[in-house]
Amino acid sequence: MNDTLKNVEVLPRAAGEEPLYEVREKIYPRAVSGAFARWRLALVLATQLVFYGTPWLEWNGRQAVLFDLGARKFYVFGLVLWPQDFIYLTLLLVISALSLFLFTAVAGRLWCGYACPQTVYTEIFLWIERRIEGDRARRMKRDAAPFTLGKLGVKAAKHASWIVLSLWTGFTFVAYFTPARELSLEAAGVSLGPWETFWILFYGFATYGNAGWMREQVCKYMCPYARFQSAMFDPDTLIISYDAQRGEPRGGRSRAADPRAKGLGDCVDCGICVQVCPTGIDIREGLQYECIGCAACIDGCNQVMKKMGYAPGLIRYSTENALKNRWGIAQTLKRLMRPRVIVYTAILWTLILGTAAALALRVPLKVDVIRDRGSLSREVDEGAIENVYRLQIMNASEFPRVFHITASGIPTLKVAGESFFAVEGAGTRMVPVRLRVAGGEARPGSHRIEFEVGAMGEPRVSVRERSVFLVR
Known about the structure:
By secondary structure, this protein is α+β, with helices and mostly antiparallel strands. It has helices at residues 2-6, 35-53, 86-107, 110-115, 117-133, 136-144, 149-174, 180-188, 194-214, 216-222, 225-228, 244-247, 272-275, 296-308, 320-325, 329-334, 339-361; strands spanning 58-59, 62-63, 65-68, 73-76, 79-81, 239-242, 315-318, 365-371, 378-379, 385-395, 401-408, 414-416, 420-423, 428-437, 445-455, 458-471. The strands form five sheets. Strands 8, 9, 10, 12 and 14 form a five-stranded antiparallel sheet that branches. Helix 5 (117-133) runs antiparallel to helix 7 and helix 5 (117-133) crosses helix 9. The chain starts with a helix and ends with a strand. Mean pLDDT is 89; it is low at 1-11.
């Protein structure tokens, strides 16, 4: 084997030949201010307030939002959902997907640019980095400088801050599955269970790695949305666009110079749009799949236009048709309500209203009927035929209730023994139920019957479940 390897000749790469893998060049996004930067900041604060704050909210003496996997109960404020309510999760996922399609068809990658967790946490990590290491120029200079004790201290402070935030993020994630206050006491006493420890560390490591190290690589190479976004765009989709007719030919000039006299467009070729881009692309080269739609280039370019005394909007939200036909804002917005947008909107609102109605009309009671296979059918007193069942009654409300069980489907069919059962709030109870039919009232074979379980004093809280009654 070694002799074979010695005989292999390694050929040098030909001039101009592209390498198989591109070496990543670290991106140093420049801080930018403006209308869209304020929108991003507002959404970062809003999403993190919801994420970090929700586990600490209380509702009826328990955590407001809690996914109790051990008890197989999901609490969402006033709702108590069971595994049988999986349809609501399905509807939520369908609504989320349609919302993504609608927003993308209207205005491109709004989700990616403003609310995606990768974007949000990258923004937070960048803010920490700027506070500790300084602006873009200082960060680039420090990274290019030889390694010193001062550099180690700055880097250690930054990474320590990132790790603390990542672990707190992992803690918060686990707090949606283990009550936050209980989890806090366990963490304070260093008595976390193995699964809680694993998921805190795993989620924290993912946050630290994705937002601190990989950053734009996640958006460019790992996220599938970047690959199929173009299938949801059309010439009337609002996207971040560079107005080449106005900006070209680009070139530097003094503020007092007349660009038209010099045969130049409004673009001063300052490169700000590239410096502020978190994925490091040049929007002047046209729409690229790496663009996450954060609009940082719009804010950066508008700042330069303002300094030069030019009109803003050299880079702006626009459409392919609007740029081509030189449409104004009114005409551009008029084209947004096109057939595909109307269809997406109609389907989305139908699903939202239907899901809301289903939740509002949902009966907070579930019943599973299980036949007792140890005693399928037996003859009891006076020749009566008896079948034994087990009913699992799930009280899907947070208040204790007493339920009454009846059965129908065969003449003289009745419940023998206890028919009233109390079930605690958000609880479940397995109860034995014996059904009897008078002798000779039913021919041998299988007969369809129906159980009715209803809450005492609450006619609306009632369900029916089918089963069979066997006569030998």
